[in-house]
Amino acid sequence: MTGSFYPPQRTLMGPGPSDVPPRVLGALARPTIGHLDPQFVALMDETKALLQYAFQTDNALTLPVSAPGSAGMEACFVNLVSPGDTVIVCRNGVFGGRMQENVERCGATAILVDDDWGSAVSVDKVAAAFAAHPEASALAFVHAETSTGAYSDVAALCALAREHGALSIVDTVTSLGGIELRVDDWGADAVYAGTQKCLSCVPGIAPVTFSPAAVERIQAREHKVQSWFLDMQLVMGYWGGESKRSYHHTAPVNALYALHESLLMLKEETLEAAWARHAFNHRALVAGLEAMGLSLAVDAECRLPQLNAVRIPEGVDDAAVRAALLRDFDLEIGAGLGALAGKTWRIGLMGHSSRRRNVMTCLAALESVLSTQGAAINTGVALAAAEAVFAG
Fold first, then answer.
1. What per-residue confidence (pLDDT) applies to 241?
2. Dist. CA 352–CA 269, nearest whole Å
3. For residue range 375-386, what is the model confidence (pLDDT) as tens digits?
4. 22-268, what's its fold?
């Protein structure tokens, strides 16, 4: 490639990123101003307030970290976990495993609570872990496990942490804006997310929020935070306070324009309407998939509407199907991860990608490709089944 790059127009229905709406792409193209410009500082304040709405929190320490969701995860751990601490880590998919990695890199001990991939975190197992390890200072778990399409009970798990004097660290990368999340009502202490999933913003920013109890823990640290860039006491000099902001780093100005626009769109729609939209489109997609003869890998009671793990039919070439969807239909779906690699596809209905048109496009394209491969599916019925849901 020797000239400018012009990407193809894809329909993004994988585990992220999701389709970015024109309003958000347009915001990216606005004139760049300085990251300490008074007008940009005003935008920062608005963005913080919009994030508080999205998280349903009044936490003063709420901000977008200038890096992807993985940096939001690391920001929570390096600020709240110190060498010698004990942290209970729930592992029911890939991203619980990444939490374990963060705990250990902080010099702490991870007590693992394992559940089957595709299952919710067991509240009873976590209670047993606290009983066995009363010294635990934190509980870490994933709300919406992107690798499996299962969600867990945030309110119950956070209540357990509080009962045992521990903080809760919660991964909401795939849940923010897609399913119910109420940080304050549920008592979550450190929560991180990503912009490229149900917020339908460009990748590269990680919203985080810390409760007053978490802020107390940060301020009482006896060891420096191991990451200078992610040290919340330093970052808040730029993002917090009523007086003049202090320089910490050059924020991604245009990306923050995009985040502001996507959060504004979420507030215009309202959280409740966004949650309902994701659930409605999910029901239509599942109806079509099941009519086709396909099944989902996660039980209905803990199944994410925005991330659907679909079992790959016997004898079907996983990679060939995904390649054909991309080549022939400009449609991206995701492969399985970890224990589910080669066993599931992950079909995303996140943010702007959660639309009737995308549901119908995906069903038609998948039926076409699977039929070409000779898969044992029911043809000519998936679109009608989805349409029946849309018709109410």
1. 61
2. 12
3. 999 999 999 999
4. Aspartate Aminotransferase; domain 2 (3.40.640)
Instruction: Give phi and psi for 73, each to the nearest 5.
Output: -60, -50
Amino acid found at 81: V
**What residue ranges in 118-205 does DSSP mark as E strands?**
138-142, 144-145, 150-151, 167-171, 190-192
Handedness of CA 128, 133, 139, 145 (dihedral sign): negative
148-165 burial string, b = 16+ CB within 10 Å, else e?
bbbbbbbeebbebbeebe
Whole-number Å distance between alpha carbons of 126 and 89: 9
Residue 294 to residue 370: CA distance in whole angstroms: 11
What is the dotted CATH code of the domain comprising 271-390? 3.90.1150.10
Distance, in Å, from the CA atom of 186 to the CA atom of 188, rounded to the nearest integer, reads 6
pLDDT digits (tens, 9 = 90+) for 262-311: 999 999 999 999 999 999 999 999 999 999 999 999 999 999 999 999 99
Please report, for the chain, the start and end positions of each structural domain, with discontinuous segments joined by +: 22-268, 271-390
- Tokens 């804006």 locate to 177
Is 162 marked as a binding-site residue? no
Rg from Cα positions in the chain: 21
Q: Could you identify the residue written with the tokens 């970290």?
A: 65
Q: Tokens 């109890």 map to which residue?
A: 213
For residue 212, say if its preceding peptide bond is cis, omega within 30 degrees of 0.
no
For the stretch 76-130, pLDDT in tens is 999 999 999 999 999 999 999 999 999 999 999 999 999 999 999 999 999 999 9
Per-position b or e across 47-82, b if 16+ CB within 10 A of its CB = bbebbbebbbbebbbbbbbbbbbbbbbbbbbbbbbb
- For residues 322 and 345, is the Cβ–Cβ distance under 8 A? yes
**How many other β-carbons are positioned within 10 Å of the β-carbon of residue 296?**
20
Distance of alpha carbon 365 from its chain centroid, rounded? 26
Tens of pLDDT, residues 203-255: 999 999 999 999 999 999 998 999 999 999 999 888 876 657 888 999 999 99
**Three-state SS at 139:** strand
Alpha-carbon separation of residue 342 from 21, 160, 313, 316, 366 (angstroms): 31, 36, 10, 10, 17
Return the ∠ at Cα 31 (arms to 26 and 36), rounded to 5°: 120
